[in-house]
Write a structure and sequence with these properties.
The chain is an alpha/beta fold. It contains 14 helices and 16 strands. The chain folds into 2 domains: about 20-140, Rossmann fold, CATH 3.40.50.720; about 190-380, Vaccinia Virus protein VP39 (Rossmann fold). It has helices spanning about 10-15, 20-30, 50-60, 110-115, 125-130, 145-150, 155-160, 165-180, 220-225, 240-250, 300, 320-325, 325-330, 345-355; strands at about 40-45, 65-70, 80, 85, 100, 120-125, 210-215, 235-240, 260, 265, 270-275, 290-295, 310, 335-340, 360-365, 375-380.
Length: about 375
């Protein structure tokens, strides 16, 4: 990959950028009214954990929360300090000069709508977390966001040179643009909504053995079964959350070819701590979780058996799980679809790990949502 390639202007910008501090200063200069030193009054949309934590931070810093909104009926009327969650329609009566912060990883559509309604400043909470991480504690997705972006730029350029099609290079350039600007609009031209099963990238046979790590209630298993028209040999689904696993097992009780496993996928068989909240934040974290759960490795489960396609979206455990699948990857060279967004270093770390296990893979990148989530690296035979 030539970093001056005209098809990747944001990669060229990254290669020419200064330090993480320089990038942070540029963001603050572009959004002066959102710095903690200038923010006096704000509206917040999103009342789940991150939005709630931000409202609390604002109250402790003397920033007035003019409105705290969410249309989830279960959250309406809940409180944090002096703030109460009200419907998003309450923003209609708010002055358009009040900054609106959207506390959601899928906030681009709402951001666009509110800008269309005349609000002068509508940004994602992640922008504030990236600009001032010491003031607004970042979600795990954004910890050392700029530091890793700058520190990994040579590795990112190497990945660019290994990508197998123009769509992947455009996706990577949009990925870099989002890293440098925290503006999700950069993703709009490149989004591929066929999550884990992008059209035209590969085809399935009638005897697939599909491993789904991070199965949730089986939504991606259902997508796979639909994609292959019900013709497959075996599906193995890993879901460690006990509450979610119960729904998964019930959903496939009548299908003997689907094998739900109530374990997390890891580098080895054992027990870890699990943060059990049945949400996108459910993570295997080794310690600090609320309950113990068993984990296993793919190599232990397969015991040398065949596998053709492996999907992993396991909240930051992908690297450990890939290390626990080395034998299967070397023996069977399955297609891989690996989420690379849970930590800022994941994209490069996961690419380099797979490349070290089997250097003969072809790599493709797809952005499959209009936000930080669902960046997927595909490794194909």
């Amino acid at each position: 990959m030539n970093a001056s390639d005209q098809t990747m202007p944001w990669l060229r910008a990254l290669m020419a950028a200064g330090s993480a501090g320089d990038l942070r200063a540029s963001l603050l200069a572009a959004h002066p009214g959102l710095s903690s030193g200038h923010l006096r009054r704000v509206a917040v949309v999103g009342a789940r954990d991150e939005g709630r934590a931000f409202v609390s931070q604002c109250q402790h810093k003397g920033i007035e929360v003019a409105a705290w909104c969410d249309d989830n009926p279960a959250l309406l009327g809940t409180t944090e300090g002096t703030a109460t969650v009200v419907p998003v329609s309450r923003l209609d009566g708010l002055e358009r000069s009040v900054p609106v912060i959207v506390a959601s990883h899928r906030g681009r559509p709402l951001r666009t709508r509110l800008k269309g309604d005349g609000f002068a400043q509508v940004e994602l909470l992640s922008l504030l977390q990236v600009m001032e991480p010491d003031v607004f504690q970042p979600h795990m997705f954004f910890v050392e966001w700029l530091e890793r972006t700058v520190g990994d730029r040579d590795r990112i350029a190497r990945l660019a040179g290994r990508l197998g099609d123009d769509a992947s290079r455009r996706a990577l350039d949009a990925f870099i643009a989002f890293r440098l600007t925290v503006d999700p609009d950069h993703f709009v031209p490149v989004v591929d909504h066929d999550l884990y099963f992008p059209q035209g990238l590969f085809t399935f046979t009638g005897d697939e053995v599909y491993v789904d790590a991070g199965t949730f209630d089986g939504d991606s298993i259902r997508m796979f079964i639909d994609r292959v028209g019900g013709r497959y040999q075996r599906v193995i689904g890993f879901e460690p959350d006990p509450n979610t696993f119960a729904a998964l097992a019930a959903n496939f009780r009548g299908e003997p070819r689907v094998e739900p496993i109530n374990k997390g996928l890891w580098s080895e068989t054992g027990v870890l701590r699990f943060r059990n909240d049945a949400s996108r934040g459910s993570i295997l974290d080794g310690d600090g979780g609320t309950i113990e759960v068993p984990v296993t490795s793919l190599d232990d489960v397969l015991a040398g058996g065949r596998v053709t396609y492996v999907k992993m979206n396991i909240e930051g455990a992908e690297i450990a799980a890939l290390n626990g699948a080395r034998e299967a990857i070397r023996a069977w060279k399955p297609r891989l679809a690996i989420s690379v967004y849970h930590r800022p270093s994941d994209l490069c770390d996961i690419f380099e790990l797979i490349d070290a296990i089997r250097p003969d893979y072809r790599f493709f990148l797809r952005q499959q949502d209009e936000g930080v989530i669902e960046s997927v690296l595909y490794a194909l035979p």
